[in-house]
Every structure is written in C-alpha cells, then in structure tokens.
Specification:
Elements lengths: L1 H7 L5 E3 L8 H8 L13 E5 L6 E6 L3 E6 L7 E7 L9 H7 L4 E7 H9 L1 H12 L10 H24 L4
Antiparallel strand pairs: 1-4, 2-3, 3-4, 5-6
Helix pairs in contact: 5-6
Length: 172
C-alpha cells in the first residue's frame, strides 16, 4: 500500500520485502523453502511479478539467499555487470553460488540492477547506527523524562546523518 501511494504521488521506491508483507504467495513459498534442498534455485535466477494494478513490481532474486524486493522503479529485466567475490560460507543456501563460481575467487557477473543499486545504498542505516554507537553522546538526563531522551536521540540522529551526508559529498 505504501509503495502504491508513493507511485501515485510520483515518487520511486525500492526495498526488500518480508514474507508477511502481502507479497505474491508463490514468491513467499519460494522464500520459505529457499534454504532446503528441495527449494534451492540456481544463483542469479529472477522472478518478477507486477501487482494487479501494475503499479508495483514484486521481484525475487537468488543471491546467497533468495531476496524479495518491492519496487516502483524497476521492471525486473534490467541488468548490470558487477565484479563479485566468491562467498566463503559453506551453508546449504550458498551452494548454488559456490557452483556458479567454481574455482574462480572473483567473477564478473551480470546481476539485477535492482540488487546492485540496492546493495550500494542499503548500508546507510546500519552505518548510521554504527557511528552512533561508537561516538555516542551518552549524557545523563536528570529532568524531562522521555521528552529529554527523545530530544537526545533525535539530536544524535541529526548529527550522524549530517556527518554521513558530508562524507558522501555536497548535500542538496
């Protein structure tokens, strides 16, 4: 519903989806059996299904694990060439990618544009949390209760986000 409304207002949106978010049921089933021998798809397999109103695309892409995406921007057939390293994990769900790489430690792979662009941008929240934890402005709050705590939290978020924007270049 959020993605549909964003699309109606002219905004593009892309993000990963959980199994319980109302995504197409066959994609949910693929995700549920992904880490079993019965359901292991080959590496880099893509399944794209538009919603009934054709406003949002639901995409499943097999990397180490099956990743579910919702997007108003991508159709599911766009690809980019990326250099990928062979994962070192021996888990069952990573066997298709291990077979794909064979003995090569690095390969140039044509992967989904949605995955490549999402992977480049997804680290922002995690990075912000890391910076907040490392440079935490731990101050004792003596008065004000939850309002003072909320203010401190929002101040930290604003400072960290400003720092990240300055690192990435000129803010708009």
């Amino acid at each position: 519903d959020l993605f549909r409304r964003l699309r109606q207002r002219g905004h593009g949106a892309t993000g990963t989806a959980r199994k319980n978010c109302g995504i197409y049921k066959p994609l949910v089933k693929l995700k549920a059996i992904d880490n079993t021998a019965a359901g292991s798809l080959e590496f880099n397999v893509v399944k794209a299904i538009p919603t009934a109103d054709n406003k949002v695309n639901q995409i499943a892409w097999k990397d180490n694990a099956l990743v579910l995406f919702l997007t108003t921007v991508f159709k599911g057939n766009e690809r980019l060439d990326c250099i990928r390293k062979k994962p070192t994990t021996d888990q069952m769900q990573a066997r298709p990618i291990q077979r794909f790489f064979g003995d090569d430690p690095v390969k140039q792979v044509s992967i989904q544009s949605i995955a490549a662009i999402y992977n480049n941008e997804m680290n922002a929240v995690d990075r912000g949390d890391q910076i907040r934890a490392y440079w935490g402005l731990d101050r004792r709050v003596r008065r004000g209760g939850w309002k003072a705590l909320a203010w401190d939290f929002l101040l930290e978020i604003a400072l960290v986000n400003s720092f990240i924007l300055q690192q990435r270049g000129q803010p708009r």
